[in-house]
Design brief:
This protein is of the alpha+beta class and 360 residues long. It has 11 helices and 13 strands.
Amino acid sequence: MARLDYETFLSGLPDAVVGVDEAFRIILWNAAAEALTGKSARRVQGRTLKEVFPPDSSLARHLAETLRTGESRSEAEAMIDGTDGRLVAVSIVTAPLARGSGNVEAAVAVLRDLSRIRQLEEEVQRGQTLAAVGRMAVGLAHEIRNPLTAIRGAVQLLKNELGDEARWGEYTDVLLKEVDRVNRILEALLDLGRPVQLKPRPVNLHQLLERVALLAEEMAASQGVRIVRRYDPSLPPILADEDRVVSVFHNLVRNAIEAMPRGGRVTLTTRVSMNPLFAKVDLGTGTRQLVEVQVSDEGEGIPEALRAKIFDPFVTTKQRGLGLGLALCHRILEEHRGAIQIESAPGKGTTVSCFLPIAK
């Protein structure tokens, strides 16, 4: 029974735990270590650490020193081989495991994935930035709208006074259209700054996505784009403000279609979230599991220089566009206690992942 509790405790830890014996054979490898490295415990246990990690790696070096000296070692940031051959930044802390006699017979290392912490920090910082921009936008928009209203009224009077003379009418029409365009920009800024009044209720996610697909059908057909569904039929209803979430996915699907002017596929995928950062959320009435919705395209991808700030206002990859759409999507999902992430590779396309809580 004690062994079962011990294994359950290890498997439930969010940090990777790796243990080796005196011969440097792996004796501990928990579920978080599997997720971090992409290597199963059954595959690595019993093998020497140098068969799994380079012998000059920080992990191997610190474990060797702990076995030799019986003292803990730590490193604030080191790199290890993660899944798909990518390097992952981790912090490392090692500790000796000794017999009653005091002889060190094993050593254990705890690895914390720093990328997860940084993602959360970026989410918090992004939310604070959007809130600050929103407050500024509300004040700025109100100050600009009053003179714009006066300008529009004056131009309208001028148009009436000038009558039907084509040359002057052309100029006044341009002025009216540009004033209206500035007003639309101000309305978008106000949307970013206004408090979001959500009316959450249980919503069938797949019916919602079908509504979005229907709205985008004509635009997709005109560009030779096909919308593909990969839905998990077992998903429960989500807790959401339907109109707000429809606007999020309508924006994302439209972006995906526009990213493929020569045609391609937009894939809508739904599933229970397996992302360790966005698996559950506390809504104050209990912890809720999150579902993940992915909107994927086969376009050219987002330039690397823009990826870190793609949710910032006025950042866009489009020649014509305000760059407020993704900022608003981020705001709406944040108000739902969810999240949004983007993965993009040059020439391979972009995947936007949205996380929303289930209704129960």
